[in-house]
């Protein structure tokens, strides 16, 4: 296949940051995707409906004129988010809340310390039909970083599903065979997003010939066994798995630093990276449903009606791009990609 056309996709997990940095990255996503779930881990985090509305306006101003792109807003769940705030969020068009276990990832220190503290609020979400997007890693320092997702399933996910059976839960950016299996076997209220980096790379990528900070994200890349299980889930045709890039831009100097920030920037070449992953599994025919159908179906939103075309045409990804006053280095920057959006 030299080119193919699919329904315009959506990105169900995206970080765009704020201010000048946001102006730099939003156009890349708007070019590829019709909608994106905007993650709320700003500093300070987006915890109220009013903040989400103001953030949405700022994002909309960063969309180039004539481009049709809708940011879908989320709130950052804290120990003190109230059921009343859920009502206001619903009225403001917010679609979901995000769980950051305190300390799990970038800007998560305001996150939840014990999920049981939030049960009244989760019940309100269940009632109002807001989704719960979960960063699924425990933060217990005794648990090895490569095991944190698998342990989360037993310690948090299973009790949560038991206690809130009607809540729609997205297990975000899954990285392990255990999570893929858990979601496959769960009921229809549970789904998962998959990033391009976890479909394309195993953890060797972080250490190839030296430490490679641009391959460092959270949850961290896992072994080849896990990568294969994720690719199998993504290309299975199951409606529980859909596209969420977790494109997470950090200024180059924050990545190439003695303490490297977690996050891969992929917004510029996201659908091309997914095409490469699906092609490697001989499953390009499964890309459209993964990228464009399963997400809106799970969220209860209409599918997009326009199309994009991808062509097999090698091109070189820029090594660095402006990021506000700083610069950013895309994942695979300076290297060749096989597919290109027309
Ligand atoms: C994300 C970020 O930088 O905001 N980083 C990452 O490695 N994925 C946070 C997150 O989604 O965990
Ligand atoms: Zn993320």
**Count of separate structural domains:** 1
Task: List the uncertain runs.
Answer: none
Helix/sheet category = alpha/beta
Radius of gyration, in Å, reads 19 Å
Mean pLDDT: 97
Query: In order across it, which strands form the biggest sheet?
Result: 2-3-4-5-6-7-8-9
- Most strands sheet: 8 strands, parallel
Strand content: 15-25%
CATH topology descriptor: TIM Barrel
Provide the CATH architecture.
Alpha-Beta Barrel
Report the span from N to C terminus.
Answer: 15 Å
Number of strands: 13
Quaternary status: single chain
CATH class designation? Alpha Beta
Helix content: 25-40%
Q: Which ligands, by name, code or SMILES, are bound?
A: N-carbamoyl-L-aspartate, zinc ion
Order of helices and strands: EEHEHEHEHEHEHEHHHEHHHEEEE
CATH level-4 homologous superfamily:
Metal-dependent hydrolases
Report the total helices: 12
Name the overall outline.
Answer: globular
Description:
The protein is of the alpha/beta class and 342 residues long. The protein has one domain: TIM Barrel. It contains 12 helices and 13 strands. The protein has helices at residues 19-32, 49-62, 83-91, 119-128, 148-163, 177-185, 196-200, 204-207, 224-234, 252-255, 270-280, 287-299, and strands at 3-7, 11-14, 35-38, 70-76, 96-99, 131-134, 169-171, 190-194, 241-243, 307-316, 321-323, 326-328, 336-341. An 8-stranded parallel β-sheet has the order 2-3-4-5-6-7-8-9. A 3-stranded antiparallel β-sheet has the order 1-10-13. Strand 3, helix 2 and strand 4 (70-76) form a beta-alpha-beta unit. The mean pLDDT is 97. The site of N-carbamoyl-L-aspartate (NCD) has 11 residues, from loops.
